[in-house]
Amino acid sequence: MPTWQRLAVFGGVLLATFIVARIVDRWFSRRELPAETVTRYRVLRRSLMTLIVFIGVFSALLVIPQVRAVAAGILASSAVIGIVVGFAAQRTIGNFIAGLLIALAQPIRLGDHVETEGLTGVVEEIGLTYTFIRTPDNDRLVIPNEKIASDTIRNSSIRSRKKLAQVTVPVPLDRDLDAAIGLLREVAGDADAQVQVSELDDQAHLTLSVWAPDERSAERLESDLRLKAHARLREAGVFA
Predict the structure, then answer these.
(1) Which pTM value belongs to this model?
(2) Cβ contact 99:39 at 8 Å
(3) Distance separating alpha carbons of residues 3 and 10, to the nearest angstrom
(4) What are the start-end ranges of the E strands in 12-161?
């Protein structure tokens, strides 16, 4: 094959590679997705771009006979090279794999408020090897993905939907508080309900706490508990 034809094929393969990479990249970037899905797509997008460009450039280089000969030798000794590269770039490879694990398991997501090593911030970017966290003073923490995957991080954005319904009932100080606490537990009808003496002044304030499935359910539960607590305590003579 003449040299000009090889160069034309080389240029055509490279051009096709970058066109495919651009199309895939734009397809990913246009999608409106929730935070947890965006995190996966960002890492997948970068991994896919890297793979497409690598395969395209390698394929284009194989058009050149001299490079093809070198490539054959490289492939023949791929085991040795793999061991050498593995030792030389084990931290980089570890960060890359950790980035994929973060994207799949999602201990943190884009936009999450996190705390690590006493510093707080918002997850701004999760790259292939590093994660960027913006602190309140607008600095950037650049943390290797491997460290995030292995260290303990407090994520204030990932919370349960459960909401604690709390009702505080004033009880005269001359009443039996233990009996009143038992009555409030009966009202709750929940073995996990807690009743505490939250305050003592001219009256004792007993706070009944019960977990509800969500915030709206907690509001309804608080209203029901107030009515039931008032009726039960009045029936028992706690309220004159």
Answers:
(1) 0.45
(2) no
(3) 10
(4) 113-116, 119-126, 130-134, 140-144, 154-155
